[in-house]
Amino acid sequence: MAIEEHVNKYLRNFDSSKYESAVRAIATTKQKSAVDNQTLVYLLRHLFVLEYGTQSIPGGVVWYDIHPCLKQALGI
Length: 76
Known about the structure:
Layout (H helix, E strand, L loop, with lengths): L1 H12 L2 H14 L7 H9 L3 E5 L8 E5 L1 H7 L2
Antiparallel strand pairs: 1-2
Helix pairs in contact: 1-4
């Protein structure tokens, strides 16, 4: 029940008409180049998209994915 409530919170706060195609592109490619920088910053700031990887290591791999709760809410 707690997870369902968190999923619904993400869905209520997410502007799907404006950002759904962007998060779907990130979910598919796992790359920041899938969206423009301003959109990526917004999605990261509001935790709709998360950054993963080893960026602290020179040449480390970094990838992106949408938050698991938003992923569930959008059925991705």
